[in-house]
């Protein structure tokens, strides 16, 4: 059953995260990165594959520096509507804490194998995804590569015109692309 893990973990009487997916009209190939101050601060990286958001938790967040390989831990599939979720998950709930939409946009699948294009679902199953992001903050190529150890992936910026070895985009642009709020502003609301 799709989204079974997602639903099992949450009590929708208590959290205002989306329960059912009404997002079928959401533009096709979307990605979203949510900054989530749960028990540990992390960034949730999600891309649409078929009718769910495939998800990874990235403890250190994305980097524009191709030399930084950022650990990405797969988490349960989320409904498409989750791409619009920003707010506070109440105490004693799964993932309790503040969530902002740190970046959002569309992606293009550029995964190749032996010079042939690989569709995104197959790329995900094989553990090797190359995508071009067109977000408000993140642009250009990124790879998501599954490690030999189970359940560990790496997110790596491609060395293209959008790579930047100096800029710390997480510090320079901490705010939501939807509300302009930071996690701290949500806390003090
Ligand atoms: Mn999270």
* Fraction of residues in H or I helices: 10-25%
Biggest sheet descriptor: 8 strands, antiparallel, barrel
Q: DSSP helix count? A: 4
* Beta-strand percent range: 35-45%
The SSE order reads: HEEEEEEEEHEEEHH
Strand order of the largest sheet: 1-2-3-4-11-10-9-6
On the 0 to 100 scale, the average pLDDT is: 94
What would you call the structural class? Answer: mainly beta
Q: Could you explain the architecture of this structure?
A:
The structure is a single chain. The chain is mainly beta and 189 residues long. 11% of the residues lie in helices and 40% in strands. It has four helices and eleven strands. It has helices at 4-8, 120-126, 169-172, 183-187, and strands at residues 30-37, 41-49, 52-58, 69-78, 87-89, 97-109, 112-113, 116-117, 128-135, 139-146, 153-157. The chain is globular. It starts with a helix and ends with a helix. Bound molecules: manganese (II) ion. The site of manganese (II) ion has 6 residues, from strand 2. Manganese (II) ion binds next to strand 2.
């Amino acid at each position: 059953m799709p989204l079974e893990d997602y639903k099992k973990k949450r009590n929708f009487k208590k959290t205002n995260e989306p329960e059912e997916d009404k997002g079928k009209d959401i533009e096709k190939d979307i990605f979203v990165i949510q900054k989530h101050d749960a028990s540990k601060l992390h960034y949730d990286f999600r891309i649409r594959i078929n009718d769910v958001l495939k998800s990874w938790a990235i403890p250190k967040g994305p980097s524009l520096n191709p030399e930084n390989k950022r650990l990405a831990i797969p988490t349960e599939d989320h409904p498409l509507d989750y791409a619009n979720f920003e707010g506070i998950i109440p105490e004693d709930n799964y993932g309790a804490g503040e969530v902002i939409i740190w970046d959002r946009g569309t992606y293009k699948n550029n995964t190749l194998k032996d010079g042939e294009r690989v569709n995104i679902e197959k790329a995900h199953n094989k553990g090797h995804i190359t995508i071009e992001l067109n977000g408000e903050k993140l642009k250009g190529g990124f790879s998501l590569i599954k490690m030999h150890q189970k359940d560990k992936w790496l997110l790596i910026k491609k060395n293209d015109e959008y790579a930047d070895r100096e800029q710390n985009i997480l510090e320079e642009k901490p705010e939501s692309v939807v509300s302009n709020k930071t996690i701290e502003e949500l806390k003090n609301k």
